[in-house]
Amino acid sequence: MPYSDIIRSPEGIPNLNYKTWSKQNLSSRFLSATAGIFALISVLPLLAVLIYILIKGIGGINLALFTELPPPPGLEGGGIGNAIIGSIIVTIIAGCIAIPVGVGGGIYLAEYSNGRGFSQFIRFGANVLAGVPSIIAGVFVYGIIVSTRLIFGATFSAIAGGIALSVLMLPTVIKTTDEGLKLVSDDLRRAAFGVGASRFVTVSQITLPTAFAPIATGVVLSIARASGETAPLIFTALFSPFWPEGIFEPIATLSVLIYNFSALPYEAQIELAWSASFILVFFVLLLNLSARWLGRLTKG
After folding, report:
1. Residue 195 CB: number of other CB atoms within 10 A?
2. Cα 194 → chain centroid
3. Among 10-19, 145-154, 198-207, which range has the highest average pLDDT?
4. Is 44 left (phi over 0), alpha (psi -120 to 50) or beta?
5. Mean confidence (pLDDT) of the chain
6. 278: number of Cβ within 10 Å
């Protein structure tokens, strides 16, 4: 509406009375309602999955579920204690590999590189690796480590599974470390250099602690992604119906247990698969909530 067409009072003051049924307000309400409907639709799949898994899985939660081994096919009772411990072991191995390497790579990109050549290649590689299907990481580690018995003659093992998951974690850790360090003000760096601090001291004692929250957020998100993967572990860690015997032996994990048991025609195993699904979803949800909390620390 042109400025000259604005309705004015006799005193010349613009009439800003809100007109509920005006064309502009009706259009605004329609667009707001449409956006709200689409937002609700986008959340419905998540709510449906969470509610369905809650209904199916929470009934099987008991102490035996965490302390006993899975029963043989067709028998009742038992638990998934070996898979819970196995998932923790494999995730710890993946974190011990991916976190130091990823944080180190992010530090190099943000603090030591000149933004050209090799650093561009690393950023491009991290972006490509972030989009690689997880099964490709599993096949890669299978071909390099499992089939060749490269690590102490072991084939399927927890350490092979951890290496496969670390490949999936690396891009997230590298990118969040790089971006987190870029958020640190250059004034802090210049002040440190001004008092004679070396670049190593500046990074280790100033910029890295300052960027702790965004880096930790990326680490938590990468762990959340890795902990729910199945395909890489089928090719690397395989499965075991027994308690973990070492990192160089096949090991049970929650995601592979769900995959195996859900295909069996036995009600007891299917119920264990639902309970394992509930535990895994709860764990991933807890990690994501932790990441959001760390993100709020960054904004604060």
Report:
1. 7
2. 39
3. 198-207
4. alpha
5. 88
6. 21
CA distance 50 to 43: 11
Neighbouring CB atoms inside 10 A of 294's CB total: 19
Q: Name the β-bridge partners of 14.
A: 8
- Please provide the distance, in angstroms rounded to a whole number, between the alpha carbons at the two ends of the chain: 41
- Spatial contact of 141 and 168, defined as CB atoms under 8 Å apart: no
Res 3: pLDDT: 47
Q: Structural domains in the chain?
A: 63-299 (1.10.3720.10)
pLDDT (tens digit per residue) in 21-60: 666 677 888 888 999 999 999 999 989 999 999 999 998 8
Residue type, 297: L
> Cα–Cα distances in Å, from 82 out to 21, 64, 158?
64, 12, 12
User: What Å distances lie between residue 81 and 37, 136, 160, 230, 242, CA to CA?
Assistant: 42, 29, 21, 18, 9
DSSP conformation class of 107: H
Q: From CA 217, how far away is CA 273, in angstroms rounded?
A: 30
Residue labelled with tokens 């400025």: 3
